[in-house]
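Lay summary

Proteins are chains of building blocks that fold into shapes. Our project writes down both the chain and a compact code for its shape. Here are two examples, one after the other.
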Amino acid sequence: MSLSAYVTIIRPANAVISGITAIIAYLIASGTNIFSALALFVIVTVICGAGNVLNDYFDRDIDAINRPDRPIPSGALSPRNAAVWAGVLFAVGILVSFATNFWCLAIAVVNTILLIAYAAKLKKMPLLGNLSVAYLSGSIFLFGGVLVGPESFIVTLPLFAITFFGTLAREILKAAEDIEGDAAGGARTLPMILGVQKSGYVSVILIACAICASVVPYSRWGALYLAAIAVIDLFILYAAAKSVRCKTPAELIAARSTSLIKYGMFAALFLFLVMELWYGIISPLF
């Protein structure tokens, strides 16, 4: 049992990226208070990390098949210590949210409850688990919006929609890749019902919905944004379309659709940051 296991199990890169995303959302919502931004970063990062820990706790039997290198199945961290660590992180996130406002606190509490329900039960239920992850990913933008105020919250809704549909598509494909391990763990996921190829078709439809939502920020950022997001949209659509040709989990893994969609979503997030920095901060100075 080592200190590094406590860091590894929170998936630090994933958690920190979530915190940075929340700050980007705060900037897009016209937030300017650096202390509020830092508090938001801590809240989102630790709650995301806690969810990752709890997910590993409940998935330890499945991970023994799919990911034996993870801290719990490898023996680097005991299940009990992992559960305590998750509780500590959740508590820190909620306590820090008391320093923000009611709506941030409300989202922090709701997301904590949903993360616990997801790890314990919802993940093994068809579609509900995927919907939970999609909402949780999109809600990072809502955090940034509500911290600034109700009017600013509206600005972040299109970004929530883009993230929700894109994440839902990717989660369904990830579940299709993990059919064997999930079945061994007693899960009943949507790809088990639909099959790998039909899951690919569903992902394409969801990506199309995300693309429709991605057009909305044009009114805020103009033609340059529209041209850049069009390239990213086409890349993500191509990644999802590759999954339609796959009939087995092995073929889907080889197609790398989930990885390509993730890269495309990171590119979109970077574009949001660049557009807001230019039009919201740099351009007004000239």
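And here is the second example, written the same way.
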Amino acid sequence: MAREGNWPPTARPAAIRARAELQARIRQFFAERGVLEVTTPILSMTGNSDPAMRQFRAEPHGRYLRSSPEYALKRLLAAGSGDIYELGPAFRDEPPARGHNHEFTLLEWYRVGWTARELASEVAELIDTCHPRGGLPRKHLTYRELFLDGAGIDPFEARLEDLRRRAEDLEYEGEPLGRNGLLDLLMALVIQPSLPDHQLTLVRDFPADQAALAKVRAGTPPVAERFEVFLGSVELANGYQELTCPGEQRARFVADNRRRRERGAPEVAPDERLLAALEAGLPECAGVALGVDRLLMCTLEVRSLAEVIAFPGERA
């Protein structure tokens, strides 16, 4: 039973008003640029196959609460929608923390014919529009440059034992991590905390095995055409040059499920509707997802999502 003292919202009235103003500003930003707002299902028959993703399932029907509207938005793109965005709820079964809540507000948009670097610049423009400081300084870095500058290691060349040694130095005592898990650990505990306050850091060219649904660009080494945007130490956005090849997408679904089996996680059936849309022809495009609650947290310069969400997990 809920305790009687837990009924009020954790966010103050000023933060609740600021949320409404932020969402109105976002909608105005896209209206001025001719990007269409759309609505897609919150409950889906298929989930996200990302091995690290923990999702909510709605029993007894077995549908998933979406972790992102990505698959549905790509089906609209393949049907000829043109540039689109969606602003709405998403869900991830992750432990609540200062920067995580089970239910959160996600902004996701797609630009047809754009490159990932062009879209990253638009993300920065949106943040500038929404942030009271405006005109925030920007720094563009590759993933390799970020790790060399922030941790003194080359993420493409470092030996696995060297990465494990760095984790030991950080007194990490969790489950054994592979290469990408160790890089994520260094990112979270070493690099992100060192990023300058009130600076936008735009990071591109990730390791190919972190591509998710992004294209991979050939080279030595090959890199995933994806980017992330940080404001200070807070990760706000993650974007891709979107994969358009149905065969490669199916292969990635298979690989994801192999890794899920290795982790002891339940497999997720490939989204056949998404694959059919890719077969029909997804236009060349770039897409990005941005955490609206985190953006609001940054614009108000508060330290916890509980200060910008009226009823976070423990009070929902």
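What can we say about the second shape? Residues 253 and 270 are 6 Å apart (CA to CA).
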